Automatic annotation (TrEMBL):
GO terms for molecular function: carboxy-lyase activity; magnesium ion binding; thiamine pyrophosphate binding. Keywords: Decarboxylase, Lyase. The keyword Cell membrane does not apply. Residues 43-109 form the Thiamine pyrophosphate enzyme TPP-binding domain. The keyword Lyase applies. InterPro entries: THDP-binding (IPR029061), TPP_dependent_decarboxylase (IPR051818), TPP_enzyme_TPP-bd (IPR011766). The lineage of its organism: Bacteria, Bacillati, Actinomycetota, Actinomycetes, Pseudonocardiales. Pfam families: TPP_enzyme_C (PF02775). This is Thiamine pyrophosphate enzyme TPP-binding domain-containing protein.
Amino acid sequence: MNIVEATRVVVDVLPDALIVSSLGTATSAARLATDDGPHFYLGAAMGSALAAALGLAEAVPERQVVALLGDGDFLMGASTLWSVSAWRPANLVVVVLADGAYAITGGQPVAPSLRLAEVADALDGLAGVTADSAGSLRAALTSIDRPGIVEARISERVWPGPSPFVDPAEVVRGVRSNIAAGP
Ligand SMILES: Cc1ncc(C[n+]2csc(CCOP(=O)(O)OP(=O)(O)O)c2C)c(N)n1
């Protein structure tokens, strides 16, 4: 599975979800898979995407929210997991695109092993599961309790687009219009 395939599965299974994507290739993949749809693309602020997604999930409880994160971004903001465990938004699913590398800055290794599903399961009120194929990711997104974390294991490196510049004002306008339009 590569990150474009994984992101397309997310969009296919949860077509009405608001996506919050972290900087790097997660944002490129989300823009590609949604035809630059009105989602919350973080073009910078490494480590903050899960916190942004948690805030959005709380602010818009009637919508499904997907945090689509690079593993580097996730680790930089990992303490937010404890906030997710505390607040337990029933509309938040976290998909970590675990390619084991900081792809956009040259492929430096992230960590020897993430074991995110086990970490999530160890925390109160959080579910964790791993997926290593499009089929298992589809099943995970369909069945995981919320809030839940899916460690999507990425085995094939692809380049979904250039390092994305996203205009924050435009992003906010798009997300507001998405929320106003409803699911
Ligand atoms: C605080 C901070 N440190 C470092 C960077 C540089 N940087 C930008 S993207 C990135 C890699 C992100 O890795 P990951 O989330 O795994 O996404 P990928 O590049 O693999 O898509 C790094 C290190 C940054 N933007 N901010």
